[in-house]
Amino acid sequence: MIETAVYDTKPYDREYLARTAGAERISWRFHDLRLNAETAHDASGAQAVCVFVNDQADRACLKELSALDVKLIALRCAGHNNVDLVAAREFSLVVVRVPAYSPHAVAEHTFGLLLTLNRKIHRAYNRVRELNFSLSGLVGFDIRGKTVGIIGTGKIGRIAAQIFRGFEANVIAHDPFPESDWAKAHGIHYTDLDTLLAASDILSLHLPLSPDTLHLLNAQTIARTKPGVFIVNTSRGKLIDITALIAALKSGHIGGVALDVYEEEEGIFFQDLSGQVLLDDELSHLLVFPNVLITAHQAFLTQEALSEIARVTTEDIITLGTREPFLAGTTL
């Protein structure tokens, strides 16, 4: 049995991991708390730890895990910006992830957010529940004919672009590694970032977080966007400078914002804080705007995605856990 400490677990994590083929070869130790340097001691006796997006596997944490003789860090997500890969290599810790659990889930949620925000479906739902059938203030726009800028054309970005094309939108894209054959096949045109920002009625972000993409949308780049632009982000919260975003919402430059991620979501998202005072002033400010829609990092949350995350994570733990020795220093 491979002893595995699973951090930041929710009921669906326990359900899907426990019932996945091969799970009987793993001794799961589920923890509700998040992994960091202070909680790493709870992995004592484990060969592997399994973490999610808001766990913090920084150098101090990885040093502690290494001292506990943990050999494997299994991310049940695609992003890995919360893991210090240099330190992992230094401490001979193997790091694995789930690179593509369900790109359709995230791309479809992207479009769902946009439709809900644009057509005010959330506001209409609440009105009708109160027997208010007025249509005042619920005017949206057709997506057909609008220019949509896709920033990042990995698996998710390409699917999102194809969905927009299905609605007969004009789709342009920017990526440092363009997929030219795919773009040609779907009538999508690559362009430079400045041109995309200036031309797009809708911006959809599909990028990993890196030093190059940190605050990609900031005061300067937002100023170059088209007045009234709608922005959708289902990738990483820190792609957007929230202070600059709020300023552009206040000025009316931005027409609408739909977020499934937030720059400082750690300690907030995935928690039930109802009945408490939200101490994050910027998030509180965002929630006041009628043209802002926020979901709590749920774009991945489909049956298909959870099954794939559990399958890949379980296989990674079993495969690496039965080799002697572990693949020291192997990363993503």
TrEMBL record:
D-isomer specific 2-hydroxyacid dehydrogenase NAD-binding domain residues: 111-299
Span of domain D-isomer specific 2-hydroxyacid dehydrogenase catalytic: 5-320
PANTHER family: 2-HYDROXYACID DEHYDROGENASE HOMOLOG 1-RELATED
Molecular function GO labels: D-lactate dehydrogenase (NAD+) activity; NAD binding
Keywords: NAD, Oxidoreductase
SUPFAM superfamilies found in the cross-reference section: Formate/glycerate dehydrogenase catalytic domain-like (SSF52283), NAD(P)-binding Rossmann-fold domains (SSF51735)
Phylogenetic placement of the source organism: Bacteria, Pseudomonadati, Planctomycetota, Planctomycetia, Pirellulales
InterPro entries from the UniProt entry: D-isomer_2_OHA_DH_cat_dom, D-isomer_DH_CS, D-isomer_DH_CS1, D-isomer_DH_NAD-bd, D-LDH-like, NAD(P)-bd_dom_sf
EC code: 1.1.1.28
Name of the protein in question: D-lactate dehydrogenase
Family named by the database record: Belongs to the D-isomer specific 2-hydroxyacid dehydrogenase family.
Regions crossing the membrane: none
Leader sequence residues: none
The organism of origin for this protein: Anatilimnocola aggregata
Pfam families, per the entry: 2-Hacid_dh (PF00389), 2-Hacid_dh_C (PF02826)
